[in-house]
Amino acid sequence: MSPGATVKTRQRSRVARLAEARERRLGLDPERAAREQRIDEATLEVQDARDTHADAQAAALVAQQAVARGLARLFAERLTQTEIASLTNLDLATVRRLRQLHNDAASDNDLEAQPTFASRLSQPLSTSSDSAAASDRPEKLTLPGSRHPTLLE
Question: Is the pTM of this model over 0.85?
Answer without folding.
Answer: no
